[in-house]
């Protein structure tokens, strides 16, 4: 501290000691009186030092431990100067300690409970050639399923021709609007007509309706069959008539019907006579003679848009017997082309909206066509 000048700022204590050293170096010549006084002061001071240090007996030497501590703490080379300071009769004015900034309190001791701070969000990298989103529009896009796992219903539509388990001829027509028409010719010679509606679930075709043995109101039936599309239809019919059957698909159903195929006169003779004439434009006229009476009818025939059958309407005259009098019916007609030298044949049937009866309109071509 005292060895030389310091480049930094000095404390007040350092400055005081420096001034004392400079004043002592400046005293070169002394007056004799001053020298004598100095000698006496030195002698007294030496005695005082002896008493204070315990070299001379005195009760004061034991009662000042703080002075010994002060002497012991004096630095080397300045021991006498430290004793002189300790012997001052009045304590020197305490020197203000060097102002040192108090240490900052430990952050962990005074910091309050940490408040939640949202974590810093990552800053997106600057893109020099990126676009800016100006608007967002929601679009609804129709999904495209693969169809895996979906149940596919077989199509029972078409002509089906075959026989019952007993060998009786059976023909069925399933139209594209769900209607079921059929003809069953029993060994007894009686013709039974089938009218109903049906649907397919997977490979199972079911239908319900009525089976008519004559012009009566008919009796209910249920049909249950397994269909192999455009191949076979096999099952059973129960109700007013009960039988099993196996039928094959007739691919002629796929041809488009034409009025040229059905125009002409068609006649059927059994216990009654039915004569039907169809013009080139599809106009239909005819009559039925039975039990000595005659019933006239008229209507129209129109080919299906893509399949090989015709849609028909037949209205009976008011002079006809019940249940035909004044009633309009609708149904179908199909033509079997001539084969093996035989004539072409027409098979048709129609029924009123309430399904109370079925009118057969069958025959072979007598003229025309």
Set down the secondary structure blueprint.
Blueprint: H1 12-26, H2 32-53, H3 65-72, H4 79-86, H5 107-110, E1 158-164, E2 169-174, E3 179-185, E4 191-201, E5 204-212, E6 219-228, E7 232-239, E8 243-250, H6 259-262, E9 264-269, E10 273-278, E11 283-290, E12 293-303, E13 310-316, E14 328-336, E15 345-351, E16 359-360, E17 363-367
Antiparallel strand pairs: 1-2, 1-8, 2-3, 3-4, 4-5, 5-6, 6-7, 7-8, 9-10, 9-17, 10-11, 11-12, 12-13, 13-14, 14-15, 15-16, 15-17
What does this structure look like?
This protein has 369 residues and is an alpha+beta fold. It has helices at 12-26, 32-53, 65-72, 79-86, 107-110, 259-262; strands at residues 158-164, 169-174, 179-185, 191-201, 204-212, 219-228, 232-239, 243-250, 264-269, 273-278, 283-290, 293-303, 310-316, 328-336, 345-351, 359-360, 363-367. Strands 1-2-3-4-5-6-7-8 form an eight-stranded antiparallel barrel. It has an eight-stranded antiparallel beta barrel with strand order 9-10-11-12-13-14-15-17. β1 and β2 form a beta hairpin. α3 (65-72) runs antiparallel to α4 (79-86). The longest helix is centred in the N-terminal third of the chain and has 22 residues, at 32-53. It is elongated and about 185 Å long. Mean pLDDT is 76; it is low at 1-30 and 60-88.
